[in-house]
Structures are given as C-alpha cells and as structure tokens.
Amino acid sequence: MKYIKAILFILSFTMALIFFSCEKGTEPEPLKPGRRDYFWTIDTLPNSSYMGELWGSSPSDIWAIGAAGNITKTIYHFDGDKWSTDNIYRPISPRSIFGFSKDNIYIGGHNGTIWHYDGSNWAKNAELKKDGNIQVVFEHMWGSSKNDLFAFGAYPDESLLANNSVIAHYDGSEWAMLNTNGIVGIVNRFYKNEQDGKSYLLSYRSGGGEFPDSSLIYECTEGKYNFIYGNYWSHSFQCDISLINDEVYFIMGSTIEKRINDEFQLFLMITNHNFYQRIWGRNSKDIFLLMTDGLVHYNGIDMEYLFYFNVTPKTQIYSAMLFENEVFFLTFEYLTNSYLIYHGKLNGG
Question: How far apart (Å, rounded) are the C-alpha atoms in residues 254 and 237?
Fold first, then answer.
C-alpha cells in the first residue's frame, strides 16, 4: 500500500510540474521597449510627380506607387539595393497598393480599376462602378487575408466633390461593391479590430465652402455604420486610425485612444504641438509618430525624435512599411517637390 501511495504521489507531483510548466510556457512575454538605434539613409524616387503608397513583403521587396504624370513611371520597386521602374506603359493611375506575398499584390486606381501582380506581371483584375458611376477612385486598400481584401475611396457628388463613399470587397474569387449608406466622404482607412471584432473606418469629407472639411470615424457592425467621432480636417484637430498588431488605435487631435467596451480610453497624450495626427507601429511599445518637423518614436516609456526633416514646412510622410529590423517611410517635401524614402536599419539587424 505504501508503495502504491508513493507511486501515486510521484505521478501527481510530476503531472503538477508538467501543468505549471505548460501554463508558464503559454504566458505571453512582456513587451520590451522598442529600439531606437537606427542607421538612416535617404533615397529619392526619380522622375516621379506623385507617389503616395508603399507596400512590401520584405525589406528587399518594396513597392511604391502613385498617379505620376508619366504613365510609364507610376510603379517603382526596391530590391534591397536600389529603386527602379520597368518603364512599361499601363493604363492605370495607381492610388493604393496592398498585398499578401511577393506574388500576390493588388493596386487600386482611377475609374474603378484594380490590377494584380502574380510575381511576374501586372494585369487588370477588375473595373468596378458604383451606382453606375465609373469615376470611382480607390484611395487605399487593406485586407486580413487573400480572401478578405477591401479597396475603398469615393466618387464625385453633385458638386463634383469626392464625397460619395465607396468600399469594395474581394473574397478571393470576385469583387463586390458594399453598401455605404450612412457614410460620407473619401474612405481613407478601413480596418478590422481583433479586440472587439468590429471594423472601423475613417473618411474625409470635403466641405466645398458650405461647411468645414471634416475627418470622420465610423464603427461598422453587420453592414451598418455608426458615426462615433469627427473633427476638422486640419493639423492639430484632424482624426485618424491606425492598425497596430491587429488592434485599431484612434488618433484624436492630441490624444491616441483605444476602443474598449464601446468607449474610448486614453492610451497616450501628445504634448508636442508639432504632432501631425498620423502613427504607425509594431506594438504598443514601438510606435512612430509623424511631426511637422520629423519623426518621433514612443517606446512605452517616453518619446524621442528619430530624425528631423531636412526641409520644412509642409513635409509629410504619406506611407510606411515596418519590418522586424528595418523601416521605410515615403516622404514628400513640398518645397522641393521631392519624394523621398527614409530607410532605417537597426544596428546589428
């Protein structure tokens, strides 16, 4: 009997050790403050009159697109060493780009056109209308998977202002225009928030002199849109949203907030009046903030400039791509009419 009890005790003790070891192993590691020891280089995109978006599968596979004046120079590629364009004529004025791998990338542009890259060639994928209107412009794209891709933007209203909102969805086989009743303005962001299972979008409404230009945030649930916040579409007041580690962050003037139990909760207060209401990040302790004079980094503890722009004012960052050890920021210098890529590499990365 003692022998049996001893065996049972040993088995119980062993199982307890295994249980606690497994429990400990499943605990998420605490986030470390994001690093700031970047080495920066700046590339100029040649012969470009407008470049507005970046997307890449890796630091050696980055695409930059824009509705340039020269239609043979609307798509640029970075191979890890240099930027180049193939100078091929394509009847598309690209405004947006998003992909899932180096051989599965989409571009959205004017007249409702969407193109696809299969790793070798770009080809027209769709030509979409909304309410019979062909003047649809897809300003941005985002997707959670190759079977769940969204392209969004607007087409002109009766006053020829781009206030008729557009959202198209791709399920992996075909595109479909979604209902946008209740939204107004250019849909500029659209993200799904893993924390509450809802989607959120940002639109920019043009006033046309009748009322101020506005930035508006909507909550999307079961195809219905609920307006939850808005402000002037101008520096210091405008709002924005950003997807960081599958969580939507809400930028509201001088604050960054999260949405918890259908209420906004403060995440970070920005006291620097140069904050330009645009952020990108890897996680809650590794966030980049656009300023009117440069780029600031928040590491969960404090904020510090990573670099200052060489030319001000009116220099902006239009788009960013963040990888584990490298970052890319598409920057426009208004005074020099130059499109620059700020490329940062972590030391030892």
Answer: 8
Provide the b/e sequence for 210-234 (b: ≥16 CB within 10 Å). Answer: eeebbbbbbbbeeeebeeebbbebe
β-partners of residue 94 are 109
Q: What are the pLDDT digits (tens) for 204-228?
A: 999 988 889 999 999 999 889 999 9
At 17, phi and psi to the nearest 5?
-60, -45
Residue 64 and residue 83 in contact, taking contact as beta carbons nearer than 8 Å:
yes
SS (H, E, C) 276-305: EEEEEEEECCEEEEEECCEEEEECCCCEEE
How does strand 61-65 pair with strand 75-78? Answer: antiparallel
Q: Tell me the two tokens of residue 277.
A: 């209401």
pLDDT in tens, 26-44: 566 899 999 999 999 999 9
Q: Residue 63: which H helix or E strand, with range?
A: strand 61-65
* Continuous segment of H or E residues that includes residue 182: none
DSSP at 338: E
In CATH terms, 35-346 corresponds, of 3.40.50.300, 2.130.10.10, 3.50.30.80, 3.20.20.140, to 2.130.10.10
Give this prediction's pTM: 0.91
CA within 13 Å, CB half, 203: 27
H or E element that contains 26: helix 2-26
Give the C-alpha separation, 239 to 186, whole Å.
14
Burial, 180: exposed, middle or buried (Cβ in 10 Å; 0-12, 13-18, 19+)? buried
